[in-house]
Amino acid sequence: MIDASIQPILEKALLDERLDYDDGLTLFKSYDLLSIGNAADLIRKRIHPEPYVTYIVDRNINYTNVCHVDCDFCAFYRHMKDLEAYTLSRQVLGQKIQETIDLGGVQILLQGGLHPRLKLGWYEDLLRWIKANYDIHIHGFSPPELDWFAKINKISLIETLTRLRDAGLGSIPGGGAEILTDHARDTISPKKCTAAEWLEVMRQGHLVQLKSSATMMYGHVESYGERVEHLLRLRDLQDETGGFTAFICWSLQPNNTRLEHMPASGSFEYLKTLAISRLMLDNIPNFQSSWVTQGPKIGQLSLKFGANDMGGTMIEENVVSQAGTIYCMPMEEIERLVVELGYVPKQRNFFYEIIN
Question: What is the pLDDT of residues 183-197, one digit of tens each?
Fold first, then answer.
């Protein structure tokens, strides 16, 4: 059923007028998914008139699962004394990177827990070793990690980021954002960096020429209003720095976590959140499909709800899979889904430059 109350808001977006908080809240409260999705698709086509959809061949490498922040939504972390705690050796890291390159990979997503013992020199040595031995882009260390590195080493964020950049860090992933409000973070991840600190890591990273992605994990304790606030804070920072290359949203995967009692959000809520994000984040060019959490078919459908990119092939994924959600797609399957919609699949690098 068409929701008459949202039509002026969708027309506003299609006229390139910026949506405000009340507009976003009204859209989230609406059940008119098709109207919202159609508007997002039109905006996507305006920004990306090209006949292709991009993807990247990459691998998630979680160098350690040791973490001291105990987030309620995480099934991946372990404490130092746990039997399953690990920090990967360089031999294992090297094998994983070489496998990625052999499969046509151009990027590794290097993330881990907030380890209480590893100092910045360890990370610098690791980055230099990777760059000396492998020709690959390092998309590494989410803002909570970078914030932690600065704190545990008692140095400034700018020094932390500059030293890691000079050692070989290529860009910053948007992980650890969850919802950028104090209420949400105090409830599900009280030991992690605050919303303001997450944003400051990205601000300082952009200032030292480290581009980044932006994310949102929804479907837990946040309200619709908090989702809107999250999007507005990202948009404001993008106005300031222009450093975000892409946006990715996904729903909480509650299994095996302390939020297991919460019902998982479905595909309707995912597509609505993706589409509204495309309408509100008018200054972030690329939107990735979250097929890793939603599955291939919804991942494909997201290309009609504002996404222009299928994300990574995810040769390896360890965090979401610990919560019981395991979707993997080889390059051939991603390309088939793209072709089915009438687009040409194109492989890209982190900077959305076409490489095939």
Answer: 988 888 787 899 999
- Buried-state track 274-295, b at ≥16 Cβ within 10 A, e below 16: bbbbbbbbbebbbbbbbbbbbe
- Neighbouring CB atoms inside 10 A of 264's CB total 17
DSSP 63: S
What does the pLDDT look like over 81-135, one tens digit per residue? 767 778 899 999 999 999 999 989 999 999 987 878 889 999 999 999 999 999 9
Domains assigned to the chain: 4-347 (3.20.20.70)
Question: Residue 128, SS3?
Answer: helix
Distances (CA, A) of 342 to 51, 52, 309, 338, 345: 8, 9, 14, 7, 10
Task: Say which DSSP state 343 is in.
Answer: P
* Structure token digits, residue 137: 């882009």
Handedness of CA 197, 199, 205, 211 (dihedral sign): positive
Distance from C-alpha of 240 to C-alpha of 249, rounded to nearest angstrom: 22
The residues pairing with 78 across neighbouring beta strands, listed in sequence order, are 66
| Strands of the 212-218 sheet, one edge to the other | 212-218, 244-251, 286-287
